[in-house]
Amino acid sequence: MSYIHGIQQTIMPDEYVELCLPFGTLRTYAATSTIHERGIKNKGLSLVVSGEVKIGNYGLDGSYQITTVLRRGDTFGEFTLYASLARTHHAEALTECKVLQIPEPAYRSLTSQHPAITEFITRSLAIKLHSALERLDDIRRLPTHVQLAKLIYQSYLTSKHVFIPLRQSDYAERLGVTVLTAHKSLTKLYALKLIEKRYGGVAITHVERLEGFLKESSSLLPL
């Protein structure tokens, strides 16, 4: 369960965002516009300042598989800086958004003048790796409805609201399953009285009950 709590620590605090602003170019992207494509090798850090950015990839059939949604304070592109790796995902504006693009030379200057940024990014990368390993373990071990419960709980921790405004199709995209499978998983969670259907999303009925369900269902001791 620790990875769910850890994800929130990857969001850059507002005071750090302000430190970054003079070192990059703040660009506005209209909803559905491409920010960068998979395979691009331009080195730089991208920082979401406002709006929402979806990260994912297109399959051979043209379908889009979403990996995550980024909001203010979220960063991406770190691997291009620290390992000279190409961008692994397609980044697209989910809503109108503003993204600070910091090229490598400017990033080096930023971290030289503000070492706290280096410490934050390094810790953030470690947490993201930890989260990715836990997610891989979830896919290999856990039933889809348990994975869905973890996704809903993660959304609650991020927003602090028991109402989660995600559609059935959104859950399917995030979990990499069909809409029918997502529907069946939601039905199981309704039957367990962990969540209830609301207009435009779902609501957690009892947070403590959901936490208990996830601890019992993970079959691994918390880290």
UniProtKB/TrEMBL annotation:
UniProt keyword annotations, A-Z: DNA-binding, Transcription, Transcription regulation
UniProt key word Transcription: yes
Protein name from the UniProt record: Transcriptional regulator
GO cellular component: cytosol
Entry's Gene Ontology molecular function annotations: DNA binding; DNA-binding transcription factor activity
Superkingdom of the organism of origin: Bacteria
Pfam family, one: cNMP_binding
Cyclic nucleotide-binding domain mapped to chain residues: 27-110
Record has DNA-binding as a keyword: yes
InterPro entries named among the record's database cross-references: cNMP-bd_dom, cNMP-bd_dom_sf, Env_Response_Regulators, HTH_CRP, RmlC-like_jellyroll, WH_DNA-bd_sf
